[in-house]
Structures are given as structure tokens and as C-alpha cells.
Amino acid sequence: MVExxxxxxETTSGKIEGVFRKGLYVFRGVPYAAPPVAKRRWxxxxxxxPWGGVRPAQEFAPNAPQAPVGIQLLEPQEKQPQSEDCLYLxxxxxxxxxxxxxxxxxxxxxxxxTGAGSWLAYNGRILSTRGDVVIVTINYxxxxxxxxxxxxxxxxxxxxxGNEGLLDQVFALEWVRNNISRFGGDPxxxxxxxxxxxxxxxxxxxxxxxxRGLFHRAILQSGAANHVNSLEHAEKVAAIFLDILxxxxxDVEKLRSLSEQELLNAQAEIMARAIDPKSAxxxxxxxxxxxxxxxxxxxxxAIAGGSADNVPVLIGTNLDExxxxxxxxxxxxxxxxAQLLRRCQYLISGEDAAGLIEAYRQARSQRNLPGTPAELxxxxxxxxxxxxxxxRLAEAHCxxxxxxxxxxxxxxSPIMNGFLGSCHALEIGFVFxxxxxxxxxxxxxxxxxxxxxxxxxxxxxxxxxxxxxxxxEWKLYGERRATMILGKQCVLVEAPHDEERRAWEPFADxxxxxx
Length: 515
What we know:
Number of strands: 15
Radius of gyration: 22 Å
Shape: globular
Largest sheet: 13 strands, mixed
CATH class of the largest domain: Alpha Beta
CATH superfamily of the largest domain: Alpha/Beta hydrolase fold, catalytic domain
């Protein structure tokens, strides 16, 4: 029987009680901000109310309000409660001492509308133990509560910028700066890392003036710095939201009195409209906003201008990102050449869609890969949304000699007889060591890859360089485009899939990143 004891730590808001089990201290459901409820709905986060006595921190707090994502493989295996009172974090640490371990703060993905730091895939136990690092996972506001700009339509009566979820992340980093030394962590060595919308958040934090100095390294898994709304677009989404609810912009009290379920129902309608090409709001309508204040400019441009200088960056994508989203695409199996061209013309309006398709067809043919319309569309979407934005960020960062490292993950999921390939979110289980028999695959090879990735991630957190004994030397990304392939074999190559990358060179940043 495993012995479990309790452990107390004094934070800036009061004392909390976690558990010590199998050589690791774990604190769950630690409040880092005041509950954003009632009058605080749609406002920036504020400090939690101090408490007396000892507050239990042994159970996860509720998730932010959200609806199912629609892809079972991306859903949590366990049902979890939800509440607007969701601004909590979780900590795994090998010691409550002065060891000054590297700190790694995880931002979960989920399209800015789903997810939580408590999901089993993000359990920090294995990564914390193997790398002797402090792992922190957080919840942040999602959907219409975290990424809806109401300031313009309500003329400032509700001053929500559409970046409240980002401000939550910054507030959590401030909590880490002020408290993590009491959990054996080094506040002067904080790495932020995330996947999908979590990595997109990391890309945006690299550009946010308000986040500067709160972290020192950044890892971006399948997300970059292109995934934002313009202020004009955000205003359009807010107007649709109010129209769905049949609420006038001046009726602020009615807006504030809506229940969580009413908000989620309206959000579901926005998401339903978003997949209709005629809606013109895009398939990811609720996301951070270039509002001119919290986020002064397009993040990729800010990074190119030096906003992330002195922050080493490790960034990469999975080879077949888009494959998992094809599970929602009922028309893909029957896609023909004409339909492929129409889809691409819609996605990259005004650009040479036919030339892009032909470039992909030739590149895949040279590698003896299938060139069906469905295969071509998946490859183009994987690159347009994920890989090319990641390369653009790496280019922007290393242009001024900033340390930048690139990877391409190509391990194939065994599920569905390998149909998903190296799909979106597959690498998460390898990063955290939370492998399974179905989605990630298990066994000796999978465990070996997981160990190498964990060693590289924690080496990067410790030194700003992912080179380590198990992975070997990992060279900087630069003119030769050095990229570490992470899969059945881990090998450093130069400019992988470069024919496809070159095909995107004429395309502006504005056509990249949107779903």
C-alpha cells in the first residue's frame, strides 16, 4: 500500500494543504485569482481573497464552462464539473525546498473553447519526477467568457477585450513568480509550454507587453503566433452573439445575468454558424484579439520586431496534424479535384490555390505518397494552420540570432489501423509520459521516444537548449533549417518537406493559421 501524507505550504493568499505520494508533492485546485463571477464576469482577473486557517488543495477545481469538442479522442476520459469559478492551478514538485528547480507552466489546448489543466493526459507526475522540475497546469476562461470582445458593441459598458483568457494566463504566471519558490521552484527560470490553443497562447504571450519578464523560455507544440482576431472581426462575432441572444448592446444587466448554460447555448450557435462558409466569421471565431491594448499588434510581427528577444524558443508540429479533424468532415471521402480547388480558393482567397495544390501533388509524388484530393487537402491544411506558422515564428525569432529550435513529430498512432498518422495532439502523451494502448500506442519503442522527448523538454527548461544524452545534439534552427525528427527514430535533418514550405513563400501571414 502506497503511503500518502499531507504537506502544507504558505502562499501569498494563505496556507494550503496538498499530498505527498511516491516521492512527489502534489497540490490541486489552488486559487490564483478571484472567481470571475457575477460583477467580475468579463473583467480582468483580480487577486483571490485571502483566507485563514488551512485550505485543502487535494482535489482538482472545476473546469471552465465548455461544451464537448465533438472528437472523442480529444475529450477527457473522465467527467469533470464545470463552473465560472475556474481560475485555479495545480502543482507537481519533487521537493518543498530551496532547490530552485526549473518551472514548467502548461497551457492546455482546445480551440480556446474547451480543455482544463486537470485532464489526465496532463498529469505532471512522470515529467516532474524524470526531469526534477516543477510542473504547473492551469485553467483559464474559455469561449465567450474568455475570448469575446464586448467592449466595442457595448461602448465600454462591458470592457471585455476578448483577451480575458490570456489575462488569466498572465495572472497565473504572476502567481508563479510570487509563490513558486515555496514549492522548490525557481521564479527566475520559468518555461511556458502548451499545445494547440495552448501553444497559440504561448505564441501570443511572446508578443504581449504585459507578459514580459514572467517567463524565460517557451515551448510551442502545434501552435504559433498567427491565431488571432482583428478588432473588426471580433466586433462582428460579438454582434452575432448578441443577436443570437436577442439582447441589445445597451442591456448590460441582462447580459451579466445570463446563466452558464444560456451562454454555452449561444456559443454553440456561434460555433455552428462558424463552419458555414457563408458566415464569414471563420471556424475559430472565439480567440485572442488584436485590440491595440492588451495585444498591440499581430503577434508574429511583434516577435519579428524583438518582443521575444532573450527567450529561447522550441517549436514544432506533427506531420499529419489535420488527420484528426477529418473525423468531423463528412464530405472528405468523396472530395474530387474541383471540390478540392474550391475549398482551397475559399481558404486562401485571392491567392494561387491551383499552383499550391500542384506543388503538393508533385512533392508527395516524389515521396511515393498518395495524391488523392483528400490526402492533398489534409497535407495543405496541416501546413497552412500549423507547420508554416511555426516555421514563420522560428524564422522571425532566429532572424536576430535568438536561440530557436525546431522539431517535426512523425510517430504514427496505431488507432484506426494508422489512419490518423501523426495527428494533432498525439505528442502530448509522449511529453507527459501519459501513454495509452490506443491513441498514442505503448510498449518499448513508445516508452523510449517518450523518455527522449521528456529529457529534451526538461533540458530546454533547465538550460534553454534541448540537447541531452538520450536525444543527442540538437542544433539551432537557422539558414539550414535544422529540425529534429521525433518518431521511431530521433534524427536531426535539414529542411524537411522543403518543397511544401517553399510553395507557401508567396503567401502572406494573413492566410495562415485560421481554421
